[in-house]
Amino acid sequence: MPWKAHQFPTEEHPDWNPDDPYADPVALLEHRELEVRKKFIRMEKAKILREKMKLCYLREGVNQLVNCREIVDMYWESIQDVDFQLADSTRFASGHQNQAKK
User: Fold this and answer.
1) Which InterPro entries match (predicted)?
2) pLDDT along the chain (102 residues), means of 10
3) pTM passes above 0.90
């Protein structure tokens, strides 16, 4: 019996309701997993394009601005879609200072 890979869902759960996301917990979790999976795919595409851009810059040398323009444009479009979550480190630093003063 051959091994088959797990098939991940590519569309929303049929019971998913964006107006009331907590109505069905299973649909909520599947929606979150689907969104995270889509985000990871976008991030990996951006990484691949960045590698292609690096190689193009090394290969083309002084003509990189002209000859690598298409790859740079594709990379720029791909990173506009990916949002990065930044930690609020100031909150922790201020809490640490407040504890030191006590």
Assistant:
1) NDUFB10 (IPR039993)
2) 77 86 89 89 92 95 92 91 58 52 48
3) no
